[in-house]
Write a structure and sequence with these properties.
Elements (H helix, E strand, L loop, with lengths): L1 H5 L3 H31 L2 H15 L3 H6 L14 H8 L11 E8 L3 E8 L5 E6 L5 E3 L14
Antiparallel strand pairs: 1-2, 2-3, 3-4
Length: 151
């Protein structure tokens, strides 16, 4: 009879340890998942901007212009290739890409705003659309608040 009573509660201890380990593992996974989400949520958009700057470094301006959703065959109505070359070409203020650094990213619902620092100049703000991955100039340095619809 004493052997039976000695093992009494051993199953409870195992179950308690199993529950503690499961809860701890779930908390660790949730923390890792949350951290990964916040670190990687704008990854594709930042990579698109880096691809744009790599094309500028290689002086492939036609391909860089295409990342804005424009081509030489079908240029953007309000942003022609000539204007693009004024902004990003070899004679522009952005010609020296060695000083370029993406300093901030701000995720918005429809896209990402990138703050890009070119040397000691004031930062430029680029917009990368989440759906199309097209670049453009951000009309504001922060995300527009979602305003309620008017009745």
């Amino acid at each position: 009879m004493s052997g039976f009573l000695e093992s009494y509660g051993a199953g409870e201890e195992q179950r308690s340890r199993w529950i503690k380990r499961t809860v701890l593992a779930a908390l660790i996974l949730a923390a890792l998942g949350t951290t990964a989400y916040f670190l990687l949520r704008n990854y594709r958009e930042v990579q698109q901007a880096k691809r744009f700057f790599e094309l500028l470094d290689r002086r492939d301006y036609a391909a860089a212009y295409a990342l804005w959703g424009c081509t030489e065959e079908s240029p953007c109505k309000h942003y022609t290739l000539e204007k693009f070359m004024e902004d990003w070409g070899p004679q522009s203020a952005h010609a020296n890409t060695a000083d370029r650094k993406i300093t901030k990213t701000r995720g918005c619902k429809d896209g990402v705003i990138l703050e890009v620092q070119f040397g000691s100049n004031p930062p430029d703000y680029l917009w990368v659309d989440r759906q199309t991955r097209n670049l453009g100039f951000a009309p504001w340095p922060v995300c527009n608040p979602v305003l309620p619809k008017e009745p």
